[in-house]
Design goal:
Blueprint: H1 17-20, E1 39-44, H2 50-60, E2 65-70, H3 73-86, E3 92-95, H4 105-109, H5 128-134, E4 135-136, E5 139-140, E6 146-155, H6 156-162, H7 170-182, E7 188-189, H8 198-209, H9 217-222, H10 232-246, H11 258-266, E8 272-276, H12 279-286, E9 292-295, E10 308-312, E11 315-318, H13 325-335, H14 338-348, E12 351-352, H15 366-373, E13 377-378, H16 389-402, H17 408-420
């Protein structure tokens, strides 16, 4: 994700929803025709950035038309597996790294839905950390083009108007929330109506509370030496609830969707939003004059302990039964070229997965870049979980906690049960 040789984020994990989620729920199309050797079909969650990539691809390939649709992560994940199994899926589709959700690499490659991309020129160049989540059984299936991080994205103009500065300790974070609430402008927008959003604050806190103490936590989970319920996951979840009780979020997060949360943060109705860096481009679309900066969300009172969740973002796979395989391969190769990769990450406010693209990172990502370069990042938590059920249980459980229908203790026990059930 930048101009350089950034060490690629730790343990190759990717944010699932998270990332995923640079999307909204609209459809777009470049051609009303159907079929034909010069027409490519694409399903994407990259609303706001896929448009420019498609234009660049069509310009580089005269006569080629791309028909594409974009949708939110939740809707997309529900639909794509059905389309693949019924033979109605597009030639190219968004695929998340790792194993964290229904549209992740392992989940779609295992039943044979994705074409092997190991023969592509970029596949061997992927950093080891990314290969582990772009591959299944040693073969590459995912064109992972960018790196993403999760943190607090602040509206700099709103901060200045409120006379507040971004906190770097847990104590200061709670004080920041109280001061913001007193001024009538909540600290953070939270769109928990879309269930994938529920995990982001938790992941930002878990990075420090869990992995700050034990970078080998995932290995110990896999070895059945630790659990969610009896670990610092409980601490992080408690801090998440403390933020809610302290008034860190706007009223009724469950009644606010992702789109509405963007509007709140973009227009200064809140001072910011806890999201992935992909949201920055969407906020700028809603407020072109605004300045938005991603900072780490503190979870302790020692800034030196703070870590940021950062990992490979969603990429693109080729349908094993693509109607236009040749054009599909040409498209994923373009996505992984310097031109395609830089176009994507520039629009998304991210960093490229390969270090030789000459990309100059946006100043809004200065802190994320520093954390990546100093090895102060950890993978998105779900990417190396043994099955998608763990994350789905977490997402629905967090919504139930916010609605008073469940408790943190119950949720972590349920996540442990799903984790132990295996793949």
């Amino acid at each position: 994700m930048k101009t350089r040789t950034l060490p690629v984020v730790v343990a190759a994990v990717t944010s699932t929803a998270v990332l995923a989620a640079c999307s909204g729920g609209t459809k777009a199309g470049s051609d009303s025709g159907s079929g034909g050797s010069k027409t490519l079909t694409v399903a994407s969650v990259d609303q706001g950035s896929i448009e420019d990539v498609v234009k660049a691809f069509e310009k580089a390939n005269p006569g080629v038309k791309v028909r594409y649709t974009t949708s939110g992560a939740d809707q997309y994940q529900q639909q794509i597996r059905t389309q693949l199994s019924s033979g109605t899926a597009p030639d190219v589709l968004s695929v998340w790294p790792g194993n964290g959700n229904p549209a992740a690499t392992y989940v779609l490659a295992k039943p044979g839905y994705l074409r092997d991309l190991s023969d592509r020129p970029w596949a061997a160049k992927l950093p080891d950390a990314m290969k582990s989540v772009a591959q299944y059984e040693g073969k590459t299936y995912n064109a992972v083009f960018g790196q993403n991080g999760i943190g607090a994205v602040y509206n700099e103009q709103a901060l200045k108007k409120a006379g507040l500065t971004a906190p770097d300790t847990w104590k200061d974070l709670l004080a920041f929330c109280k001061a913001a609430k007193a001024k009538g402008t909540p600290a953070f927008a939270l769109g928990n109506q879309d269930n994938w959003v529920t995990q982001l604050v938790l992941y930002a806190l878990v990075a420090t509370t869990v992995y700050g103490e034990d970078r080998d936590f995932d290995k110990k989970m896999q070895a059945d030496e630790v659990t969610f319920a009896k670990s610092a996951w409980a601490t992080a979840l408690d801090k998440y609830m403390t933020m809610e009780k302290t008034g860190c979020f706007q009223k009724n997060p469950l009644g606010t969707n992702y789109e509405a949360s963007q509007q709140l943060a973009a227009t200064g109705k809140t001072l910011g939003i806890v999201q992935g860096n992909w949201v920055i481009a969407l906020l700028q679309q809603k407020n072109p004059k605004g300045t938005f900066t991603l900072k780490a969300l503190p979870a302790t009172d020692d800034p030196a302990q703070t870590l940021i969740p950062a990992a490979a973002g969603a990429g693109y796979g080729v349908n094993a039964k693509a109607k236009n395989e040749e054009l599909a391969l040409k498209f994923v190769d373009f996505v992984m070229s310097a031109k395609g990769m830089n176009t994507f990450v520039k629009k998304q406010g991210g960093l490229p997965s390969l270090s030789d693209t000459g990309f100059a990172a946006d100043p809004s990502l200065a802190e994320l870049s520093e954390f990546i370069e100093s090895d102060r990042t950890v993978p998105f938590m779900d990417q190396l979980w043994p099955n998608p059920k763990v994350q789905q249980t977490m997402l629905s459980g967090l919504q139930e906690i916010f609605s008073g229908q469940s408790t943190p203790e119950k949720l972590l026990d349920e996540m442990d049960a799903d984790y132990k059930s295996g793949s």
